[in-house]
Amino acid sequence: MADFYEKLGNIDRRIIFVLIALAVIIPIIFGMVFPNPVGAEPSRDLFNYVDSLPEGSNVLISFDYDPSTMPELQPMAEAIVLHLFQKNINIVGMALWPQGASLGQDAMSSMADSLGKVQFEDWCNLGYKTGGGVMIVRLGSSMSAVFPTDRDDVLWSEIPMLRGITSLESFSLIISLSAGDPGIIAWVMMAGDRFGVPIGGGCTAVSAPTLYTYLQTGQMVGMLGGLKGAADYETLVGITGGQAVRGMAPQSIAHIVIMLFIIIGNVAYLSQRKKGGAK
Amino acid sequence: MRLIIPLAITFTAGMLMILNFFIPHQPFRFLGENLQEWYLIVASGSIFLGVMNLMHVHFRKIKLKLKNWKYSPVTIIGFLLMLVTGLIYGVTELKPFDYLFMNMVAPMGATMFSLLAFFVASAAFRAFRASNWRATLLLTSAFLVMLGQVPVGAMIWDKIPLAKVWLMSIPNTAGQRAVMIGAAMGVVSTSLRMIFGIERSWLGGAD
Amino acid sequence: MNWEILGIWLGALVTLCLYSFLYRDNPFYKFAEHLFVGMSAGYWVIYTIENVLIPNWWLKMFPAEGGFNWVWLIPGIFALFMLARIVPKIAGLSRLSLGMIVGVGAGLSMVSFFQTNAMAQVKGTIFSVATGSAWDVFSSLVLVVGVVSGLVYFFFSKAHTGLFGKTANVGITILMVAFGASFGYTIMARISLLIGRCQFLLEDWLPTIPRLLGIGG
Known about the structure:
The complex is a heterotrimer of chains A (279), B (207) and C (217).
Chain A: H1 2-9, H2 13-29, H3 42-52, E1 58-64, H4 70-86, E2 90-95, H5 98-115, E3 123-128, H6 132-139, H7 143-146, E4 173-178, H8 184-195, E5 199-203, H9 208-216, E6 223-225, H10 226-237, H11 243-274
Parallel strand pairs in A: 1-2, 1-4, 2-3, 4-5, 5-6
Helix pairs in contact in A: 1-11, 2-11, 3-10, 4-5, 4-10, 6-8, 10-11
Chain B: H1 4-22, H2 28-63, H3 72-89, H4 96-114, H5 116-127, H6 133-148, H7 151-156, H8 160-195
Helix pairs in contact in B: 1-2, 2-3, 3-4, 6-8
Chain C: H1 3-19, H2 27-61, H3 73-83, H4 94-126, H5 134-153, H6 162-205, H7 208-213
C-alpha cells in the first residue's frame, strides 16, 4: 500500500495534463451547459448600476488587456457593450494596453453591426496611449489633449458624439476591463478618487480578490471577476448560449478534477507521513 | 555632476506632480499638465528601447550562431511582417495588420498563457499540502472559492455561493486590505526617497 | 480564397504548435514562441507610432494649421535619450529620461497610493462597523479585527511576542484565508484561458475541416 501511495505521488505530470484536457474538452464536445444562477455578486451590482443610467449618457470603456486574458475579458466586453447599446448609451472606447485597442474594436464593432449602431454617433474607439495613470490624470482635465485623434486618425473635432465631452467628468461611468497594471487600480486612483467619476470594471480572476477592497469602500460600483463574472453578466443581459455561460460547465468539471488531485495528493502525503516517509 | 542633473529632474518632476495634486491652479496646473503630456512621449521611447534591444539580441544570436539561433530569423521576420503591414495599411479593422493580429498574435497570446492551466494543476497536486492547521485553512478557503465560483457549487449545496460571497467580502477583504495598506506605506516612503534622491538604485548602480 | 477560414487555420496551427510543448520542448513550439515575440514587438511599435507619436507629438510639433511648436522638441529629445542606453558611450544620457519618468511616477504614486490604498481603506474599515443583525455585527468585527491584526503581522519593528504576537497570529490566520481565496481564483483564471482555446479549436476550427473536404455544409 505504501508503494501505491509513493507511485501516486510520483505520477507523470503528462497524465495530469491529459486528465485536465479531458475535463475541459468532454463538456464542450457534448455541449454541456449548466444553469448559472447569479446571487448577490458584485457582477449584479455593476449590472444594476449600468441599468440605472439614463438613455444618452456617456460611458467610457477602457480595454486594458491583451490576448493572454482574452477568454476571460472578451466575453465581458461583449456583454457590457451589448447592454450599453441596448440602453442607448454612448460608448467611448480606449485602451491602456496596446493590444486592447484591437480587441475593444472587435467587441464594439461586432455588437454595433448586430444592433445597427453607428460609429462616431453611438460609439467610437479612441485607441491606445502610453502612460497609464499619468495619462488618466491628464484625461481628468482634457480628453482632447490626450486624444487629438481616434484610433484610425479621425480628428476629435470631426467625431459628432464627442462634442459634449471635455474631460473624464463628462462620463456617467468608467468601466475598465483589466488584466493587470495599468488597469482598474489606476482608474480607481486617478479617475475615481481624484475626479469623483464612478468606476466599475471587469478583471481576470487572478486580480479579483484584491479588488474586493474597493467594492467595500464604494470606490467601485461593481465588478466582474473572471469567467464567472462574464457568465453572470451574460445571464443578466439575457444572452443565450454566450461564450462565458457555455464555459461554466467545463470550468465546473475542471475545478472538481483539480480538487480531486489535491485530495489524492494529500492522502498520499498523509499516508507517507504516517509511515515516517515524508516531512 | 553625472548624477546631479538626473536627480534634479526627478526632484522637479516629482514635486511638480505633488504640487499639482494639492494646488490644482496656475502655474502648477499648466506645468503639471504639460509634464503629463510629455511623459507619454518619453514613455514611448522605452518601448522603442525594448524593441531595439530585442532585435540586437537576435541579430547577435545569428551572427555568433548561439544556441537556438535558427529561430531568431523567425522573430525578426515576425517583427518586420507586423511593422511593414502596419506602416502600409495602418491599424484599421479588417486590413492586413489587424488580420494578422486577430488570427495569429491573439491566438498565440491566449494559448501561451492557457498552458499555465496544466502546470497549475500539476503544481497543486504535488505541492498543495495540508501540513498544518493554517495550511488546511488555506486549502479550505481555496476549495470554497473554487466551488462557489462555478454552478456545480450551488448544485451540491445552495449555500456554497453565499458562503463564498461572505468569504470574499469579509475575511478576504480584511487580509487583502492589510496587505494593501502596508504596500501603500511602502510606495509612499519609496517615492519620497526617490524624489529626494536618497533612493538611487534606478540610476543603474553608479555613484 | 476564403480569408476567414485561412485565419482560423493560422490560429489553429499556431495554437497546436504551442500546445505541443505539453509533451516536451520541440521545434514547433520554439517556432511559434519566437514568432509570437516578434509579431508582438511589431504590434507594439506600430501602435506606439500610430496612436501616440503621430497624434501626441508630431502633430503637436507641426500643427495642421502650419508652423513649428519648438517646445515639443524637448520630450522628443528626452525620448531619444532613452535609446542612448544601447550605446555604451552615451548610455548616461538615458538617465535624464529615466529621471523624468521616475520623478513623475514617484510624485503621482505618492499621493495616489496614500489617498486610495491607505486613507480610503482606513476610512472603509472604520465605517464598516455595522449595527444591524448579529451576523452583520459579527462580519464587521471580523473585518476590523482582520485588518488591524493583519497590519500588526506586517509590523516587524517589534518582536512578535505576548499580546502583540497573539494579535499577529490572528493576522496571519486571516491572511491565510485571503491567500486561499487568491489561489482558488488563480486556478479558475488558468482554467478559463484553457477553456477559451478549447472552444476555439473545437467550435471554430474543427467544423472547417469537413467544409474544406466538401463534406456537409
